[in-house]
Amino acid sequence: MSRIVLLGPPGSGKGTQASALQRKWGLAHLSSGDLLRAEVKDDTELGRRAKPYMDRGDLVPDELILDMMAERMAEADTRAGFALDGFPRTVAQAEALDARLMAMGQRLEAVIYLEVPEQELLRRLSGRRTCAQCQAIYQVDTMPPKVEGLCDRCGGALLQRDDERPEVVRNRLQVYACLTEPLLRYYQQQGLLHRVDGTIGLEKVMAEIARLLARPAERQR
Questions:
Q1: Which of 11, 24, 50, 119 has the fewest C-beta atoms under 10 angstroms from its C-beta?
Q2: Which long-range contacts (CB under 8 A, 24 or more apart) does 141-150 make?
């Protein structure tokens, strides 16, 4: 059973790698961003409180995140392990996660930090488009749709999320640098942190994660 955290700035590929881990190893993909966007879409109380922070590119306050993530971590599909994507983002959240796992008799196995230069992050995020209907994600440079502006899967309109506009992306990266990077020191001190070059491509990044987690079958890919 693997319980891992994927760290990295917005656009570093955490969601892509978490989805790959879900397909390959059956790990539940727990994305704080996806959960928050679902709360906003459903117009829940949490969603209404979180939306102003998300629209500005600021971190959503801990008190809004912790209960949501704890509830998700308790669901049945996490029994085989999970990959946390977008959580924790602060040392306070990491400490709360450790306490929650300890109470459950569990612990993290590894923390993977995906390193990507800022200019590449700006290019990736500013070029991302999301289907308004099925939420499929495209990238105008590296993974464009077959028909511009339309989803390959369902034909829905492709939109740029408010938090992926260039000015908001820059703020998100600044917020990350100020508040989230201390997590690297936190997990380094615990001996859990592994740095991976996030620019080498999906399969190579996955192979490196497999190596770090000592998964022989995956290392042969």
A1: 119
A2: none
